[in-house]
Amino acid sequence: MGLNIRQKIFLSFILVVLISAGAVFTIYTNSVRVTDLSAEITHQNVRSIVLAQTMLQQLLMSDWAVSQFQLTGDPSWINMSYKAQQVFKDSWREVKILATDERKRELVAKVKTLNQRYVQQTHSVIERIQQGLINPQHQQYFRDETSVLQAIIDCLQTLITLNEGQLYSRLEEAQRLKNWNQGLSVGVVLLVTLVSALLVFILNQNIISPIARLMDGVRKFANGNFTAQVPVMSSDEIGELSGAFNIMAKNIKNDRQKLTALTITDEKTGLFNYRYFKQTMTEEMKRAERYSRHLSLVIMDIDFFKHYNDTNGHNMGDLLLKELAALLKESVRETDLVARFGGEEFVLLLPETPVSLAFKLADNIRLRIKNHAFPMEEKQPNHDLTMSMGVASFPAKNILTPDALIEKADQNLYRAKKSGRNRVCR
To answer: Could you tell me whether strands 345-351 and 387-394 are parallel, antiparallel, or unpaired per DSSP bridges?
Structure first.
């Protein structure tokens, strides 16, 4: 039995992970070695060089301060010499700690011995000068000190040279490790690339091509083709997924149609709701303004609807609304829009219709409603079910927005109500 898609992908993943993990471990190990070596170089050799140079500088500073004392007799120069010697000794202690091989330890010990001798000789001469036993201008008293000073300088320079040699050697070693690491990284990348290419080639036949067909169907669906279906070419997971997609696409198409209908339809009457009416009216008004066309609006209200509801019950009131909605839809063109405005109010949106034609259409609808036999209409105050209507049209004075057009039609409806109902006002 062949492997399923999960097993193929899992085995491919494990293979790539093992190769990558081994390569990463090797690269990481070498990187740690390079880092440790660099840290060692920085801490030992570089620090030793800096300290040796500091000792050399402070030694020369101390000797220069003594020479200034010879020339001036100012004791402050002696204090400067002591301070330089103190820095020299502090640096020597750290150099001693960093001296890791026998040769360095010998040089460090020799520097200490020579410096002690130099300090003793210098202090002896300074004391004799201060006591007036010798003339500070006679240089022969400082010849021994000068030879010791030169010996210390030679030792420090040798120590610096040793550390520099080790530094360069370790830098070369670190560079070799770095180059080898880079080569290994390139090799790993090539190996992983080759293995990945092989896996892609193998998996393409069983996974990628079927998925591409599935994606093509998904893309069509995403672009609005809700009738898109995917061919089911196999019985594996992708085949099952393709079949599931076909079922899902069909269900989404049906649900979308239902949802669209719910968002724009009034539940009781089946007419468009106020939200859809307002949206359509805004678009139609822009179109009428752009092309200089007429747009008329009729707002209708059932006369004494509360009395009908109270007398016959709300169920009968709902049935009346449905019957009236059907009659209104039969009375207008396909391009006209009939919507429930709210409660017992309805609206007609009439594109390409001037106010005179809108008034005529509204009056015809009014007469048709009056002459229609509605259930229980004999219980109405006038023994008839009637409607009052207000008509307004765009373009017209002071009507620049959809709300202004609605307000004007509503005002005319109010006039119709006040004038005795069962009439149309514009």
So the answer is: unpaired
> Going by C-beta distance under 8 Å and a sequence separation of 6 or more, which residues neighbour residue 199?
12, 15, 16
Strands lying side by side in the sheet with 295-302: 337-342, 345-351, 295-302, 387-394, 424-425
Is residue 141's pLDDT more than 50?
A: no
Fold designation for 5-192: Four Helix Bundle (Hemerythrin (Met), subunit A) (1.20.120)
pLDDT tens, position by position, 177-192:
778 877 877 787 787 7
**CB neighbour class for 115 (10 Å; exposed up to 12, middle 13-18, buried from 19):** buried
Kindly report the length of the chain: 426
Domain boundaries, the chain: 5-192, 226-263, 274-425
Which is it for strands 424-425 and 387-394: parallel, antiparallel or unpaired? parallel
Q: Peptide bond before 351: cis, by omega within 30 degrees of 0?
A: no
Residue 152: CB partners within 8 Å, gap ≥ 6?
A: 59, 111, 114, 115, 118
Q: Domain 274-425 belongs to what architecture?
A: 2-Layer Sandwich (3.30)
CB atoms near residue 228 (< 10 Å) = 19
- Return the pLDDT at 144: 61
The CA distance from 213 to 131, in Å, is 108
Residue 280, φ and ψ in degrees, nearest 5? -65, -40
**What is the set of active-site residues?**
344
Q: What is the pTM of this model?
A: 0.49
Closest alpha carbon to 299 in 275, 266, 258, 328: 328
Q: Quickly list DSSP for 123-148.
A: HHHHHHHHTTSS-TT-GGGGHHHHHH
